[in-house]
Design goal:
Ybab, Chain: A; about 120 residues; rod-shaped; alpha+beta; three-stranded antiparallel beta sheet
Length: about 120
């Protein structure tokens, strides 16, 4: 029975170490900026590692058709946010050695795996 407790203690230490490593990686990712563009660069959105919009650039040529501009903005933000999410997933995958452990993404604050 004590052998089982030793394994559990070791597992808990590993989990704590992984969480610490993930915290460092997460800080680095959150400090990064990710760009997405739409309309051939007519709209460029910049998000942080959380996918939160930081900046948006709109070419004067894109102004005119409001509905098109709205779609371009949404598209650029979606591309940038997807890049941020994919980077977060890649880093978590490196940390876990590629293991897909259900619930681990949410535990570490990463977006849920999409299964793509």
């Amino acid at each position: 029975m004590l052998g089982g407790l030793g394994n559990l203690t070791n597992l808990m230490k590993q989990a704590k170490q992984m969480q610490s490593q993930w915290g460092e990686m997460q800080k680095e990712i959150l400090a990064r900026r990710f760009e997405g563009e739409a309309g051939g660069g007519a709209v460029v959105a910049t998000v942080d590692g959380r996918g939160m919009l930081i900046d948006i650039k709109i070419s004067p040529n894109a102004i005119g058709d409001v509905e098109l501009l709205e779609d371009l903005i949404k598209g650029a933000v979606a591309v940038a946010a997807k890049k941020a999410g994919e980077t977060m997933q890649e880093e978590l995958s490196k940390l876990t050695g590629g293991l897909n452990i259900p619930g681990l993404n949410e535990m570490f604050g990463a977006p849920p795996a999409t299964g793509e």
